[in-house]
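subagent[fold] <- orchestrator: predict structure for attached chain, return tokens only, no commentary.
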Amino acid sequence: MTQPEPQSDALVFFGATGDLAYKKIFPALQGMIRRGHLNVPVIGVAKAGWNLHQMKARARDSIEKHGGLNPAAFAKLSTLLRYVDGDYQDPATFAALRKELGSADRPLHYLAIPPALFGVVVERLGKSGCALGARVIIEKPFGRDLASAQALNRILLSNFDERSIYRIDHYLGKEPVQNLHYFRFANSLLEPLWNRRYIESVQVTMAEAFGVQGRGAFYENAGAIRDVIQNHLFQVLANLAMEPPAGTDSDSVRDEKVKVLKAIMPLDAHKVVRGQFRGYRDEKGVSPGSSVETYAAVQLEIHSWRWEGVPFYIRAGKCLPVTCSEVIVRFRRPPPIFEALAPSNYMRFRISPDFCIGLGVRIKSPGELMEGSPVELRVCHHDEPNAMGAYERLLTEAMKGDATDFAREDYVEAAWRIVDPVLGDATPVHDYDPGTWGPREAGQGPAPPGGWQDPVLDAGSGSCA
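subagent[fold] -> orchestrator:
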């Protein structure tokens, strides 16, 4: 029986004055206190010339705007908060952190900072002794390609054991993604059908009706493949395609996910279509001649006994008609007893804006003829007001030493290996109009049999901004 991991006895988060802390981390900390998951010192670190009083004011404003203030929980959080101000390059900053940690010998360090600083902070943690007995959370993006991910891993592994490294992808903390994993293995009815014999194709769509929202400089260094396909959507793919794990422990689950990625060949250029919405080059921070993609569609094959011959199609884009993420698993057509061209059955897993599971079937239309019409049997879960958010869930798991929902070194490197050949300008980028489903070439390149099944929301699709 696996022994439980020791609980972290302090939480340190670098980037305490940043945007991620303001929008996500402070509300998550209050949520952890409300559920009884946090009762240790919480030390914010940043270079802002602030003091503890200013950070507490920032935390209160953050929670009021992005979480809803719970007076009792916030009062408790205020007693736990500490602050260290200093440059991440300066050893004195880490000496001050070591002093603030006091008797804590199992801290959790969360690096909510720009990726260029990951290596610097990790090495300073090691040299100052703050890495001893500690865990570390690394935010995405974890590298820009396979070589940079491997270089970062070398720095991490020279200061922390792999079991103490938590590569965070907040998508894995979302309730609908958790539900997708649960539904996949908690229902025996799926298993007889979940293979190449019955499934024709799988498509995964992550559509956003908005643009880069003033983050052009960031997006110029990312693009759709780096920003969401290599991480978020590969995680969804792994949940869909993995074999049943031997147990619920983190290594058993993550072993099966890694096997999925290792069974995928690196992408060929002819199985990728990239697009850029018109107006992107006018964004602040974007190069006038930018070839960064705001839309990408790729076709993958998983060379395993279960999935050989089943194409997996993944697309993601900005300024599309709706904001919605979903999976369509399309089954093979039945023999043409009634209607020769009847559409095939499908299963829909909607991840956002709500979690829905739908089964597309045909039923007989009223009348004398044996003709039918399509219907979708659907069940949806709407967000609960007090539901655990993604960052709250993942921070709680990391404090407990549960790495199940975090990426392991071999997974990250396997994911980069798949997309490495098509990063940058390896393929052309095609223009598309905001509010459309990507460039015209998307329908001529990698596309599911019969075309993409576009998400349709019941109401309020939003608009590109």
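orchestrator: received. Logging for downstream: The mean pLDDT is 92. The CA atoms of residues 15 and 114 lie 9 Å apart.
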